[in-house]
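User: Teach me something about this protein's shape.
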Amino acid sequence: MVQFTIRQMRQKLGQLRISISDQDWNARACNDLLSNMTAAGQAPVTEGEALYRQHLAPFESVYDCSVGVGSGWYALLMGLGAICEEDGSSFRDVKEKYGELSLFPNANSVRCEYACDFAEYLSGFICDICGKAGHRREGGWVVTRCDQHA
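Assistant: First, the predicted structure itself:
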């Protein structure tokens, strides 16, 4: 796991706000992921193949594997898709484990590896159903959910 410094993390109006230290040697990958997520927007709360095709189809060469996660994390995956596509990287597997993304990249760049580590970390604070701010909840399965979907 790559280490990075988060200056501040807070919720404002139901959204997660994150500030990353510019001093970090891997801050570019983290900032790229966050800006790509912002451009992608929040995934709608729907299930099924149609949603997957609509949001992740542009990154078909990157996600040439099964993607077994909730639609709330699709913004993370779209942000990662843009970074990994630029760097010529792809994924062997994408799944959820212990309430966080579990990514297995065929990373061709250090930037892609850092972005994957940061995405795994961030997924622990994002509801896997709707994409709003959430936290890890235990009780049988460990999941990351907002209060509404808990």
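Now, about its shape. The beta strands are 6-12, 15-20, 67-68, 90-97, 100-106, 135-137, 143-145. The longest helix spans residues 27-40. If you'd like, I can walk through any region in more detail.
User: That's plenty for now, thanks!
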